[in-house]
TrEMBL record:
The keyword Membrane applies. GO terms for cellular component: Golgi membrane. The lineage of its organism: Eukaryota, Metazoa, Ecdysozoa, Arthropoda, Crustacea. GO terms for molecular function: hexosyltransferase activity. This is Alpha 1,4-glycosyltransferase domain-containing protein. Belongs to the glycosyltransferase 32 family. It is a single-pass type II membrane protein. One of its GO terms (biological process) is glycosphingolipid biosynthetic process. Transmembrane segments: none annotated. Residues 163-296 form the Alpha 1,4-glycosyltransferase domain. It is found in: Golgi apparatus membrane. It comes from the Eukaryota.
Length: 332
């Protein structure tokens, strides 16, 4: 999530540039096929083939993004049909939420990462995670905009534009991934990749750390990219995820996220290590109530006092609102 600006490369070889030119020639066809044209859009991507219906917690992430960014289109992209029709009340309230069913091969074939694509589907320990790492870069490369994980809740408006399509930073990240892809290393192909590329890209574009930089890395401005301090979206460290379910940490959590525009609540950590029950007085539930009010009232509230984890099931509670249909919002 960065500022718009000029497009300059950093250290790309002529061969890399020519491959990029060849690849980008076909992107207009993909844009037309996917029906996405703006670099101000926000993207959430579902890569787990076992997900057949949208969990309320994911709907909360989408609603919060739509609520705080009414001038942006919020896209949820999956490769198969995912049940969303029970969320009539949310979709009636927000016209800027769209669900797309698309073939991921459209993005990956003939791309710099085509050669490693099969590795993500070959029985490695982190198949879904590896595919997510690839697709978030591909979506941003093709369409620009802002990407968020499905366990990120928007708290305020995104304070910047977003990547332009074909941005050289994203392309350099794709090249780096293709040359040094490690499918069995958690986070190596994701956040660590972005850090590695930033350390190369930023100095080449006159990057200078601001006074409040952390470890000499965050809050850098380099060319048309700004790398923000982690408190903007990651004020809650992954090691402290349990605090989000502990009422005694409410004041601490509120203070930590007071200047954040988003909060990552680490659902993967919850699924791995947490046996937690969703309660109304917990800090996380208060964040749900404030930032996805429709989802909270009609779809999360029925799940109170039940176990909360990655495989949470959509509530059976459904309500109708006249003859309104959400069919037009689910694009096949």
């Amino acid at each position: 999530m960065v500022f718009h600006g000029q497009l300059r490369s950093s250290g790309l070889s002529l061969a890399d540039v020519m491959r990029g030119v060849s690849y980008t020639l076909g992107t207009s066809k993909v844009r037309k096929l996917w029906n996405i044209s703006t670099s101000t859009s926000m993207f959430f991507v579902e890569t787990n083939p076992k997900v057949l219906s949208l969990p309320p917690r994911v709907m909360c992430a989408l609603e919060s993004a739509a609520l705080h960014n009414p001038d942006r289109q919020v896209y949820h992209i999956a490769q198969k049909d995912i049940g969303v029709h029970e969320y009539e009340l949310v979709l009636h309230q927000y016209s800027n939420i769209q669900f797309l069913k698309r073939n991921f091969n459209d993005l990956i074939l003939r791309s710099p990462v085509e050669s490693i694509y099969s590795q993500t589907l070959s029985g490695t320990s982190f198949e879904v995670k590896n595919l997510s790492d690839i697709l978030r870069l591909m979506v941003l490369f093709f369409f620009g905009g802002v990407y968020m994980d499905t366990d990120v809740i928007s708290l305020n408006r995104v304070p910047m534009g977003g990547f332009k399509s074909h941005h050289p930073f994203i392309y350099e990240a794709l090249l780096n991934m293709a040359k040094d892809f490690r499918p069995e290393h958690w986070a190596y192909n994701g956040p660590n990749l972005v850090t590695r590329v930033a350390k190369i890209y930023c100095p080449a574009h006159g990057g200078t750390a601001s006074e409040n930089s952390v470890d000499g890395m965050w809050s850098w401005k380099c060319g048309d990219i700004q790398i923000l301090n982690s408190t903007n979206a990651y004020a809650i460290d992954y090691r402290d995820f349990r605090n989000l379910f502990n009422t005694s940490h409410s004041t601490e959590i509120e203070a930590a996220i007071s200047n954040s525009f988003a909060m990552h609540y680490w659902n993967k950590m919850i699924s791995w290590h947490g046996r937690v029950t969703l309660r109304e007085d917990q800090p996380l539930y208060k964040i749900f109530r404030q930032n996805c009010p429709v989802t909270e009232e009609f779809y999360l509230r029925p799940l109170l006092n039940q176990r909360f984890h990655i495989r949470d099931k959509s509530t059976k509670m459904r309500r109708t609102i006249g003859t309104h249909s959400v069919q037009q919002r689910v694009v096949n």
